[in-house]
């Protein structure tokens, strides 16, 4: 199988040509929503992540054009999820550091 029409194999006697149709705009929204629903327990967070990616795609004409290709759309969803995961981990680390600072400062006041 190839996506290059000039790259057909001469040894294939009965080769077939077919056209793969990409996603329509509604398909893109449905795919993104379904993707984030599969990875997020909190439905409100899922919807906000999906809405954010949809807005980002709509605001960039190149990305919007590429998102009609299912493989690219899957990649965009994956990258968006990875970025959101990293942001959440950084936020959690900051909260833990802040909590540690509070514990240290309260223990200093106990000593004084």
From TrEMBL:
<protein>
    <submittedName>
        <fullName>Uncharacterized protein</fullName>
    </submittedName>
</protein>
<feature type="region of interest" description="Disordered">
    <location>
        <begin position="88"/>
        <end position="112"/>
    </location>
</feature>
């Amino acid at each position: 199988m190839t996506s290059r029409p000039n790259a057909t194999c001469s040894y294939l006697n009965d080769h077939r040509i077919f056209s793969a149709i990409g996603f329509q705009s509604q398909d893109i929204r449905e795919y993104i929503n379904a993707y984030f629903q599969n990875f997020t327990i909190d439905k409100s967070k899922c919807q906000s992540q999906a809405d954010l990616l949809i807005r980002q795609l709509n605001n960039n004409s190149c990305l919007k054009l590429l998102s009609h290709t299912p493989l690219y759309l899957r990649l965009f969803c994956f990258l968006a999820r990875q970025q959101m995961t990293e942001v959440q981990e950084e936020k959690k680390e900051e909260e833990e550091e802040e909590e540690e600072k509070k514990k240290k400062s309260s223990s200093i006041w106990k000593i004084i």
